[in-house]
Amino acid sequence: MIFSKIALALSSAATVAHAANSWIVPGAVWMSTSNTKIDAHGGMVLKRGDTFYWIGQSASHNEQPYLYTSKNLLDWTPASNPQNSIQYMWRPKFAKPNGSFWIYGQVDRNVQALKSSTINDNYAVAGSKVSLPPSGYTYSDTGMFADDDGTWYILTSADHNTVQINRINSDGSIGDRVNYLAKGAYEAPGLFKVNGIYYLIVSGKTGWRSNPNQMFWASSISGSWNGPYGIAPDAEKTYNSQNTFELTVAGSQKTTYIYMGDSWDSKGGPDSNHVWVPMTVDTANKKVTLDYHAQWKIDVNTGVVSTPSRKRRYEAERAEIVGRAAVGECGRCLNKRGVRKITSDSAVTFHNVTGLGGRQWVQFHYHMQDRNLAEAHVYVNDQPAVNISSLNHRAGYHDIVPIELNLREGADNKIIFSVSGNGEEAGVVLDGIEVVED
Ligand SMILES: *[C@@H]1O[C@H](CO)[C@@H](O)[C@H](O)[C@H]1NC(C)=O
Ligand SMILES: *[C@@H]1O[C@H](CO)[C@@H](O)[C@H](O)[C@H]1NC(C)=O
Ligand SMILES: *[C@@H]1O[C@H](CO)[C@@H](O)[C@H](O)[C@H]1NC(C)=O
């Protein structure tokens, strides 16, 4: 009897659906509608009809191509794995150079193509791996771009440091090289087009560590490249991410361009997350800027971007403070006061926090001078400690770190903020928390 009870509990746990996602949270762990961590790196998103298809390499499945679908760019449903026999395919990308759907990715430093009659399943291996025309180059990172005239282009970062653009022929084969960028060691290419100008975003080559990605522009697909130009303050290192694709959402009110990047863990493994942010394109001056938001979303019908508007704020200086931590001046805090000297024997407890019942985004507003010296932890009610960095890669890098927590309904939640390591040396200052209600 007891066994069947356990089995029942397990099976109901396994089928628990994840509540709808209300925000895109750069650097945070993103959950699918099946309550699994979304794992689709080096990927891209292709819209067909009213559905967005996201393909990427799955770090927890030997870098097989994995696919998710969504209607709103927030809730992603895992689709079937499109091709089981292919492993270690890096940066898979969709293309549709003829009536078939294609996936191109790098396998053994050459291009491997897969082909299907439907976008989301049953891809067959299409021929053997090929090197890049005209010189038979091997390469690492695959990018993809579809021009307005329906021509598809594969972007590659060749091993000898040029980023190359080749046409994809209508039979799916890799065609002529139409352009290349030989202005330094760049990889992870992505291309998008605004008002006839082609904007190429590339990353530097620093392994899994992030760097300030750069933009180059050209006035035709085969034109010469102008640049490099930064797309975010250098110190942000592209908000701890590396480019993979630029998505254009043409809405009824606005066309929004989205930078999609990977926030890699130390080895490109399953702890890697995703950083997506909208971009401002200054067409007069040909500048691209990432518009970083700790939380945002886009209405895929209108193209309009929004950020949370309903938040309940709790000030750290009014919370219960134990240990060495103490209220002090804080120039960057909302009320110019915050809790400093948060050492490992300290805790800042927010009482009577109002929750809606269930998973909810809570923004921790804190600053850390040196994130190598300390790690922030959070306890909610009687749940075990949560390491903030494990839920959001932006922890310690930004003053607003949203993580998703399980709150009770009503005004009696207790949230404790504490720090392991040397929080005083690390310069941790807690400003407050904001519980997002929309
Ligand atoms: C696309 O081209 C490939 C390769 O020539 C071919 O096998 C496939 O049938 C074509 N798809 C369609 C729908 O024409
Ligand atoms: C929390 O709310 C309860 C019930 O209203 C109240 O008795 C208690 O004093 C509050 N605690 C704090 C720390 O404000
Ligand atoms: C917290 O999580 C991060 C990211 O997963 C990890 O690197 C770090 O070691 C963790 N720290 C502790 C104290 O568990």
Provide tags for this entry.
disordered N terminus, about 450 residues, four-stranded antiparallel β-sheet, single chain, Jelly Rolls, seven-stranded antiparallel β-sheet, binds 2-acetamido-2-deoxy-beta-D-glucopyranose, Tachylectin-2, Chain A, mainly beta, 2 domains
Describe the structure.
This protein is mainly β and 438 residues long. The protein has two domains: 266 residues, Glycosyl hydrolase domain, family 43 (Tachylectin-2, Chain A, 5 Propeller), CATH 2.115.10.20; 126 residues, Sandwich (Jelly Rolls), CATH 2.60.120.260. 5% of the residues lie in helices and 49% in strands. The protein is built from three helices and 31 strands. Strands 23, 24, 27, 28, 29, 30 and 31 form a seven-stranded antiparallel β-sheet that branches. A four-stranded antiparallel β-sheet has the order 1-2-3-4, with no helix packed on it. Strand 11 and strand 12 form a beta hairpin. The longest helix has 13 residues. The protein starts with a helix and ends with a strand. 43% of the residues are buried. The N terminus is likely disordered. The structure holds 2-acetamido-2-deoxy-beta-D-glucopyranose (3 copies).
Can I get a quick summary?
The chain has helices at residues 2-14, 237-240, 388-391; strands at 41-48, 51-58, 64-70, 77-78, 90-95, 101-107, 110-116, 124-125, 139-146, 152-158, 163-168, 174-181, 186-194, 197-204, 214-218, 226-230, 242-250, 255-263, 273-282, 287-290, 297-298, 305-306, 311-315, 320-322, 326-329, 337-340, 347-367, 374-380, 386-387, 400-421, 429-436. Mean pLDDT is 93; it is low at 1-16.
